[in-house]
Backbone:
């Protein structure tokens, strides 16, 4: 069993906080969960693949290539510290469509996406990307919900 | 990282085939996927917990305790061969409610459930247990869809 490495595609996005681009709380949570609960100390058996999808209309005329690169650097640096092999790239488009296409293209063993979690009044508003991926992706999908105590007071900080 | 073992709860059910109770194709698939892609050779870092939910009205007056025990034996034997620690038990009730309650009770790191997959004409009929768990379970949930080429000709063989 386990001749080839397990390739895990992790969809990551940035926090809406202004200023220097940081990974969102849910992206960080999904990454740390994958390391702590799945990869553990078996680093050479896994390959983490980070995909950031830039939705073109979202941020106007900012230099998003640079922001996305900074975002991915965070995860690549963490992987280097831990010693797990990784790759990272950016695509433009509608996140759920791009993620599904990338799953088709690179055929990971597992797709991990963070989710902001479904509050009682948010069910219809959030979770659309993760639910779409869960239903349609051609590989197993794991959704890591953010802990309730990590919900930022201001949704823009998410 | 990874001081405590990763506890994975796997919901398993039996094939509807008559005769000796066998695990369903999707249960076997979920188990083998977990071993091959997640546990790999890091067997001492994981603990697999098998839950079979017996839905009382489903099979009339048969001796279901015995059937469920045989079903769980399959997975326990496989774990013993592989060398991964495990536990297994049976509960009665509505599968999706029981699985959610067991997640609350034992707090696994991950819930794995097999799914028959969604064929073009089956979307409204199947996937209810896995979708319910995915939406409501208080832990990350992974759904392993059965491969299309494993779909039995007769649904009763599922």
Residues:
């Amino acid at each position: 069993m386990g001749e080839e490495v397990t390739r895990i595609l992790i969809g990551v996005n940035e926090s809406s906080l202004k200023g220097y681009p940081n990974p969102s709380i849910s992206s960080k949570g999904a990454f740390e969960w994958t390391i702590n609960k799945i990869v553990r100390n078996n680093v050479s058996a896994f390959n983490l693949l980070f995909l950031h999808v830039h939705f073109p209309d979202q941020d106007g005329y900012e230099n998003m290539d640079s922001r996305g690169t900074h975002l991915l650097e965070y995860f690549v640096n963490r992987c280097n510290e831990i010693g797990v092999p990784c790759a990272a790239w950016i695509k433009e488009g509608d996140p759920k469509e791009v993620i599904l296409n990338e799953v088709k293209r690179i055929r990971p063993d597992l797709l991990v996406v963070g989710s902001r979690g479904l509050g009682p009044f948010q069910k219809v508003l959030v979770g659309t990307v993760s639910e779409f991926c869960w239903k349609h992706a051609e590989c197993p999908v794991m959704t890591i919900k953010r802990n309730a105590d990590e919900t930022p007071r201001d949704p823009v900080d998410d």
